[in-house]
Each structure stands twice: as C-alpha cells, then as structure tokens.
Amino acid sequence: MDMTLDLKALAAILFRHIWIILIIMISTVGMSLFVTYQVMSPVYEGKTELLITTEQADGQALPSPGDIDSSLKLIDTYRAIIESPTVLNPVISDLENSLTIAHLKQKMTVEPLHDSQVLVIKVEDQDQKTAVNTANLIAQSFQKRTAELMKLDNVHLLSPAEYNPDAKQICPKPVVNTIISILIGGLFAMGIVLLKHIFNTSLSSEEAVTTHLEQPVLGVIPTLPKPASEDSISSQNALRQQLMHHWQDKTPIEPYQNLAASLLYLIKNETLKTILFTSPNPGEGKSLTSLNTALLFANSKKRTLYIDMDLRKPSCHYAFQLPNHVGMSSYLFHEMPISDIIQESEIEHLSIITAGPPPPFSARLLNVAKINALLTALKDDFDIIIIDSPPTFVSDTPLISGHADGTVMVVDSKSTRYPDARQAIERITQSDSKVLGVILNNFKMKHVQDYYY
Ligand SMILES: Nc1ncnc2c1ncn2[C@@H]1O[C@H](COP(=O)(O)OP(=O)(O)O)[C@@H](O)[C@H]1O
Ligand SMILES: [Mg+2]
C-alpha cells in the first residue's frame, strides 16, 4: 500500500473519480435540503431593544458606573435581572402557556448592542407572533420591575419587537445549510475516493502494475467483445471465437500486435526462444493471450511451436479443433517420441503440442528433466516456442518455468489482486526463471474504438 501521494497524483486520482464525488455531493445537498424544508421546523425571532440611561427620567444622575469595568458589571446585573423569575414569571402568566422559566431562558438571549447602553432581548419561537409578543412582554416586565425593585426609571423601550409577515425564518438557513452540505459532502467523497485508492489492491492500470509489481507492462489487452452466440456456446468455443483468425471485422487486433512486438524485441535482444505464459490464478487469460501471440508470430513467418502444458485444464485443442488423443502427457507419462506428439495446425508456420489425455492423478510432479530434453531437442526446429502453463500456485509451473528462457505473467485487470501477482512473480523468480514482464489482460479501455478498425 503506497501511502505517499504527491499533490499532482492526488489531483489526478480525484479527477478520475469526479463523477463519484459529484454524485455524493449532490446527494448530501439533496439530503440537507430535505432536512431543511421537510424535517426541521422554521424558527422566527422577536427582537426588542432597550436603552439603559445613566440618568433618571427626572434628570437626576444615577450612581455613575465610572469606568468600563463597572459599566460591564451593570450590564451583567441588568441581564441577571431580566433572566430572573421576578421578571419572567409575569411574562409566562401573560403568555398563558405552559412554559417553564428554564424553557423560556433557552429561547431568549440578552446582549448589549456593541458594548453600548442598548440591551437587545431576542426570543426565538416557531411562531413569529409568539416570539414578538414574548420579547415585548419581557421588556415591559423588566421595565416595571426596575421601577418597583430599584426605584429607577432609566429603562426605555428603544424599539419594540414587531410582527412582519415577510420576515424570514432565522433557522434553518437553506443557503448556509447548502454550503455546509457541499463542504461536508465534498470532503466525505474525497475521503472515500482516497481511502478506496489506498486500500485498492487491484491491478486496474499500467501504473498499478509498474508500482506494485515493479515489472514492465508488455501489453495491455482490452476486454474483447463477446462471441455472437455466446449463450449457447461453451467457454472452450468462446476461446476459439476469440482467436484472431476467427475475428470478424471491427475486432481489436492492435493490442496483440503491440504485445507481440514487445516480445519480439525481447527475443531479439536477449536471444530468448522459449516463453512461458502463466498467471496467479485460473481464468486470467493465459491461454487466449498465448494463443493469439503464437498466431501473430506464425503470421509474421516465424516458425512457432505452441505447447499446451496446462495438462489438467487444457484448451488449445479446443481452440484449434485438433485431436487430443496424443499430446504432452503421452510424451511425459507414456514414453511417446517427440515427433509423434507434434501436430500441424490450420495456420502456416504454427505447430502444436496439445496437452494429451489427462495424466494419472498419482502423477503429482512433472518429470522436468523430460521437459528440458524436449525443449532442447526442439530448439533448433523453431524460432519461438510458446508454452501455456497452469497458474503459478500449481507446483508444476515454477518447475517448467525454470526451463523456459523467460516467463510472462498474465494478470486480469478486473480480478487479479497485486499481492497474489507479487507472490506469483516471486515463485517464478525463485525457480531461477526470468520474468520478462506483465500482460494486463481484460482491461477496460476508455476508448475501445481506438482499437477497432
Ligand atoms: N481479454 C479478454 N476479453 C474477453 N474475454 C477474455 C479475455 N481474456 C480471456 N477471456 C476469456 O476468459 C476465459 C478464460 O480465459 P483463458 O485464456 O482460458 O484463461 P486461463 O488460460 O488463464 O485459464 C475464456 O473464456 C476467455 O475467452
Ligand atoms: Mg488455460
């Protein structure tokens, strides 16, 4: 798991998943609007402003607060008085509802206006009229109690709360809620995308192959179109129909040509002759990829031998519709001479050794010396020998690969997990075989038409 991501890579990952991010953001905004309009009740505010003077109505000076400190204390004192039962109890009885003092205190706030001598009493309620009425009742009760208790006449109603049919609710706020939901939705979506990236063990891109497997990508094979009458045909028939020379018009050929070109380059430069195709798990495309590569080599007039060494799950005799009474197993287990097991295919320059009848179950291990002898004997007769093998976890595969000049690892971009692929590569390298690179099969091309002509 690669935990270090630079900013450019991070942006690229997020951009690749822009649709997921947008969908999550739109869903969060939708949920927020639903909650705002359908679940939350609107709350309105009633606001009364009181002016507290330092002079009595008759012009007599009040004991002066003197400094800011005592002025603040005075404000606190007034606030405490406003919130006291002496002021609030008459309000509750005037309101004629079953409000408690604690409840009323929750709904109201008393604050000075910008450190001035103006006190603002705010009351919130689901009904605007009640909010307005309560704010005014509190102001009146406070005015009355100051006069009674403190014998002061210095509280003046500056602006009473007023009912306004066009007033906007103070809560919930659709715009604020929408902005918050966009931010939360966006962050949440990006978090999900990044976590998915960090914990993603698939080999869904060339970059993933080079990063996680530290191997060159020899070819990228797209998901091929399904054969026409797929419902009624077996997977062996499907394989045949996906062979290049059975392809109809408009079928991708270029990816295989690119793969064959990479292999030819290696063969020339590193003087390789026998190439083994394997994969971490069954069904990842060893046979289809190796068969098509062999076809391309034969097409380019290279004397090509294809050996089906996947003795328990053979496939090439189905693909080429060849008899399978004799084959590799006949040579390995029944001492049949090499010349008797080689068949000519319908394609010029392409010879085949099919798997032959399934080996006895007791034959757990292959006689690798015999395989080596066969490869050595045939080396001069062919330009290229392609071996289709079982997956790497089958103990035969590393043994066979030890006698090939190079091994290519086929991985399925949709199903192969890179820890499995890494283990597979390790098994091959431990058997003293050279891993030439990786073929990324079953790849979902963004622009499949690029490969059609
Ligand atoms: N790139 C591909 N696109 C579509 N189908 C594929 C692709 N590669 C393999 N398949 C199909 O998947 C199945 C398994 O492929 P196969 O080559 O037999 O795998 P393996 O030899 O590794 O077990 C076959 O039916 C084959 O037609
Ligand atoms: Mg196979």
3D architecture notes:
This protein has 453 residues and is an alpha/beta fold. The protein folds into 3 domains: 7-40 and 172-199, no CATH class; 44-159, EIF_2_alpha (Alpha-Beta Plaits), CATH 3.30.70.1130; 206-451, Rossmann fold, CATH 3.40.50.300. The protein is 45% helix and 15% strand. The chain has 17 helices and 12 strands. The protein has helices at residues 7-16, 18-39, 68-82, 85-95, 101-107, 128-150, 174-199, 206-213, 235-241, 254-270, 286-299, 316-320, 328-334, 338-341, 368-378, 396-401, 418-430, and strands at residues 44-52, 108-112, 118-125, 155-159, 217-222, 274-278, 304-308, 343-344, 350-353, 384-388, 406-412, 435-443. An 8-stranded mixed sheet has the order 5-12-11-6-10-7-9-8, with helices on both faces. Strand 2 and strand 3 (118-125) form a beta hairpin. Helix 2 (18-39) packs antiparallel against helix 7 (174-199), helix 4 packs across helix 6 (128-150) and helix 10 (254-270) packs across helix 11 (286-299). The longest helix has 26 residues, at 174-199. Adenosine-5'-diphosphate is lined by residues 221, 223-224, 235, 238-239, 242, 279, 282-288, 315, 441-442. Magnesium ion (MG) binds at residues 286-287, 310, 313, 315, 388.
